[in-house]
Amino acid sequence: MPAQGKHRRTKSVSLSRGIAAVTTGGAVLALPVLGATTASATPAHSVAAEKAVAPVSVTAQVNSVTKAAPAKHSVVAGETLSKIAREYSVSGGWKKLYEGNRKAIGENPNLIHPGIKLTIGAKAAAPSDAKAGKAAKAAAPSAGRAATAERADRSERTAAAPVAQAAPVAAAPATYSNDLDGWIKESLAIMAERGIPGSYEGIHRNIIRESSGNPNAINNWDSNAVKGTPSKGLLQVIDPTFQAYHVPGTSTDSYDPVANITAACNYAADRYGSIDNIFGAY
């Protein structure tokens, strides 16, 4: 009797190899023996990874929301959508800024008034009707004009600044002709400053009677001449009277036409109220 079990094929079950061969109709299938163990381990690893990644993702989302928060801008005089868009580096330029603030601005993007509150980074509002679409199209060629106007306005302010800071130009001094008309007018200007009364007609009338308009006229035959103080000049004033009623700022020469007229009118105002009141010898 053969020895029991000597030539029997030993069953081979190897957990370390992890594979069992199954014969089915001549075909050999390889099945993983430890497949269940491997599958159960995988979810545990994934959950741990997800837990580790989750906080990072949430933080990133929070940061993203914080960075995307829209800013507010209050329009001031002289600003345009183009200028504001450049200041805030708005992606899409003035069009994007207008689309996000259409309700506040209105249908014309070229008309923005001081005090309007603009939201930088706001989402574009859908046009309510065909009119809004037309306004956006019409604004496209106007953007260039707005930018040009802005540059022109800046150039005007730059050019005007030196003018505003320049010292005021002094008024040119009045000039008078060197004749009877000019002498009377210059005398009247001085008399007005000193509060001495008199008119052009009154002065002219007395000059023609006294000297015929000759500033060098002198009277050597009347009683004043006998006393050694002859009457001189346009209004025939003697030296003592000229010196007593001389108007500061005029010449001290009694023959000087303007000095002679103003001194005579000053004397006439003191004695007669005005040169206009004299119609004869005085």
UniProtKB/TrEMBL annotation:
Protein name: Transglycosylase SLT domain-containing protein
Pfam families, alphabetized: SLT
Domain LysM: 71-120
Endpoints of the signal sequence: none
Region (Disordered): 136-161
The species this protein was found in: Streptomyces microflavus (Streptomyces lipmanii)
Low complexity bias (residue ranges): 136-147
PROSITE patterns per UniProt: LYSM
Biased composition annotated in UniProt, kind: Basic and acidic residues: 148-157
